[in-house]
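Input.
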Amino acid sequence: MAAPKKGRSASAQSKPGRSLALILIAIVALTGGMFASGHKTPRLGIDLAGGTSITLKAKADQGSAINKANMDTAVDIMNRRVNGLGVSEAEVQTQGNDNIIVNIPKGTNSKEAQQQVGTTAKLYFRPVLAAAPSGAAAQSPSPSASPSGSSSPNPSASPSTSASSNQKASSPSSGSPSASATSQGRPVTDALKAGSTPSPSGSASGGTKPSPTPSASSGSSAAASKLQAQYTALDCTKPAERAKAGNGAKPGDTIVACGQIGKAWYKYVLGPAGVDGTEVKKAQAVFDTQGAAGWQVQMTFTGSGAKKFADVTGTLAQKQEPQNEFGIVLDGEVVSSPRVDQAITGGQAEISGSFTQQEAQSLANMLSYGALPLSFQEQSVTTVTAALGGDQLHAGLLAGAIGLALVVIYLVVYYRGLSIVAMASLLVSAILTYLIMTLLGPAIHFALNLPAVCGAIVAIGITADSFIVYFERIRDEIREGRTLRPAVERAWPRARRTILVSDFVSFLAAAVLFIVTVGKVQGFAFTLGLTTVLDVVVVFFFTKPLMTLLARRKFFANGHKWSGLDPKSLGAKPPLRRTRRPAGPVSGPADPKEA
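Output.
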């Protein structure tokens, strides 16, 4: 029976060097990834690195009121909009009854985030009635129905009902107004009379016949003449005029608006809204690898939105350029004006063109999160310094260093030689935590803030507790009279269960905290969860194998008084093995049982 026991013991203790080598390879790989990414330090949150703070004031629209429900909805949409840009650790919260504060940490594209957060009006799909270059980009002083001579056409909107359909326009260019098939310089009044304007509900009037009269929102020829004058005088290169364009317009109005394509500005005449932005269920930027269309934006509409979009596109597809385009209008500005080639049914569509990845993602983000229950006015934009956060970080790190020093002193005094194992394990855990946090910055835009630092400090105690559980199990086995090598192996299963249960509870608490909270508290929960997982990895792949190797060394195996495993100081029982009788003469007959 001795041989099987020996075999099982050898199997249990075999090749601990493999686990240690695995940890070393992981550290080297993570270090290489850190240098390859160009980020050698963790990305810091707004409280540590500073950033941008934006204050927005709510304005009641027609049919909407400033109340808690609408403010909470706006906060949720803004938060998702900022996160859609890849900005993590951003804070979006209400202040008072009608203000929203948005804090964007330094190191992100804060300018783009500011533009999208500040662009808070409702999103509409409006038919294009006329378009022309504005300011320095204008070809002539008189307005044209479209910017004649444009070098590249608009993006096109096409169905995406099947992967095999190839109904996209060939070689479209992102957002650039198309060359018009109508005459140069056609007045706006003629443009209003030439085509039917979809109603705000999105249903086409008459199906295929153009309306012989101006749209209902223009009211009369006098209103059309006024619109013509606004369009003629509009210079979209001037910020003040851009802000006035379409200001205060209702969804059913015909408006003038501006849109930027590259560095050039264009002006538009847009009909009543056919589809509301709230009826876009989902929008995402995808790269077309099959049709070689490059980056495009895929949209999915709600049930009612799908019907309205089908009616609008069915009407627009029968018109000449630019009146076969619809303008995607956000905060009174045209962010894109794709061309419609045919009626788009089924509730799914795609906007294709020569988009860059950033342009496609930005447009998809606006379509997904563009509709808010209220309008907001930007009150202030301030730069937040990291001075206060730096002082708090210094104090926190000092407290963490003091706590770590006390833990090390306790380990050395109480566990002596075993403290080497604990400190080495803490060091490996710290290295892995630092490397992973650094890589998570460019990967998922994780930002280290003050609560996250607190989570890392709390993790010191969690990690040290795991080592103590294992060490105490080993010492209990030695007290039972076992030698070190079998004590290390017999203590591991019991310690492993305790460590896993303890870490599971900590991870569960961190996960719940991360899900139910927002902002900085999520940083604490994320760091606590990450360090808890790393604690399991370090204990299994570093602490246990290292303890197995040290158990083979005489200093620990023989129970040196400075090893922390001295049987005498632990009050160990006599060894659990049969002892020999002392040599000497035997008087009387030997006892058969003793023989």
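Residues 43 and 447 are 5 Å apart (CA to CA).
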